[in-house]
Design goal:
Elements: H1 2-33, E1 38-44, E2 61-67, E3 85-87, E4 102-104, E5 109-113, E6 121-127, E7 142-149, E8 174-178, E9 184-189, E10 193-209, E11 232-238, H2 240-252, E12 254-259, E13 272-273
Antiparallel strand pairs: 1-2, 3-4, 5-10, 6-11, 7-10, 7-12, 8-9, 10-11, 10-13
Length: 280
């Protein structure tokens, strides 16, 4: 019994000591702030990832009163000031929420770059995510380039227009019934075609317009990666002849980039058309 009373007494003394210490610390803070002009600022309470919208930060920040002289320039006390903006960088606990650290989602661009060989040319093409491995390409990747074309007008066709190994199947040439400017006439056109045109093309830079990320705690651990919302700007490096073919395809057709492993055969396959795509 005496032992239990002793334990309870020790706990009471410890609790009293804690209360006295907290009171002293608060008193010291009040004395330190005496005469200081105080302002309210939002402070990061939990780590905030780049791209998280300001509208989702309510549970990740806290409001604090600090001396005016230590308030960061551009600090805010109300998330409504940052409406429609997203975090431009990762934010860590303890730092103040500053307006300059938030940007419009469309300007949040991920950029990286590596140097191309000195004898290579470089060109940047705009490619939608599904034509570039879902936006997963990074500088240093090596890709194969596939060109896909809608029908070309063959009224001005010359034999030199055919690419290596390309043969126009007469059965696939079709005749239109409308000429230029809407008058009746005959238009001879090539078939739709797709073919691999280049191997071992180096990716030297990638710019991705990213989808604003939801708060990390709201996503399951096995959630798939979020896809970009807009085109990727991909810089490709290669010899002059390769760059010309890339630009021609980007100008007049559709460009697809395929991941290419070190053991992929370095061959140019036959061109695929509607007549050949079903062949076994």
């Amino acid at each position: 019994m005496r032992r239990a009373i002793g334990i309870l007494g020790a706990v009471a003394v410890a609790a009293l000591g804690t209360l006295l210490l907290v009171g002293y610390v608060r008193g010291a803070e009040d004395r330190a702030l005496a005469g200081e002009e105080l302002v309210e600022v939002l402070v990061v309470d939990r780590e905030i990832s780049q791209g998280v919208p300001a509208s989702l930060l309510g549970n990740s920040v806290r409001l604090e009163r600090v001396p005016l002289k230590v308030a960061a320039e551009g600090s805010v006390s109300d998330l409504a000031v940052l409406e429609d903006l997203v975090a431009a960088n990762d934010l860590v606990p303890g730092e103040q929420i500053v307006a300059s650290r938030f940007v419009v989602a469309e300007s949040l661009v991920s950029t990286a770059r590596i140097e191309a060989p000195a004898d290579f040319l470089e060109v940047t093409v705009a490619v939608s995510p599904e034509r570039a491995l879902g936006g997963q390409l990074v500088p240093g990747d090596v890709v194969a380039v596939i060109a896909s074309f809608d029908p070309f007008d063959l009224n001005t066709y010359e034999p030199s227009d055919l690419g290596p190994g390309e043969v126009i199947d007469p059965s696939e040439i079709f005749l239109g019934t409308t000429g230029e400017n809407g008058e009746e006439g005959t238009s001879v056109q090539s078939p739709n075609s797709t073919g691999l045109i280049l191997h071992d093309v180096l990716v030297t830079a990638v710019q991705v317009e990213q989808l604003p990320r939801a708060a990390a705690e709201d996503l399951p651990a096995d959630a798939p990666a979020l896809a970009p919302t807009g085109n990727l700007l991909i810089t490709l490096a290669g010899p002059a002849e390769a760059i010309e073919r890339i630009i021609f395809t980007a100008e007049h057709g559709f460009l697809w980039l395929a991941a290419e492993g070190p053991d992929a055969p370095d061959t140019i396959t036959d061109i695929v058309t509607r007549a050949t795509v079903y062949k076994q």
